[in-house]
Write a structure and sequence with these properties.
The chain contains two helices and no strands. It is an all-alpha fold. The longest helix is centred in the middle third of the chain and has 26 residues.
Length: 78
């Protein structure tokens, strides 16, 4: 069985990357993009504060006839 060296630096990673065929290099770049997107998503998710029910209570006011049918739709009503 072939023993795989552990990459310890960016230079080592670049050397290993250069030994791969182009199709595998492309897969490595796709995986790097995936990891970066996952990292960004985790950071964005941490910034989102949890919402609490009732936070805007009393801030939004509806008119008394809010549930009444609109005059514009009278012709469609029985």
């Amino acid at each position: 069985m072939m023993q795989v060296e552990q990459t310890k630096s960016l230079a080592d990673a670049m050397n290993h990357l250069q030994t791969l065929p182009p199709t595998l290099r492309e897969e490595v770049f796709h995986y790097i993009d995936f990891l970066r997107m996952r990292m960004v998503t985790k950071v964005e998710n941490k910034k989102v504060k949890k919402r609490h029910a009732g936070t805007l209570k009393g801030e939004v006011v509806f008119s008394d006839d809010f549930d009444e049918p609109l005059e514009d739709f009278e012709e469609y009503m029985p």
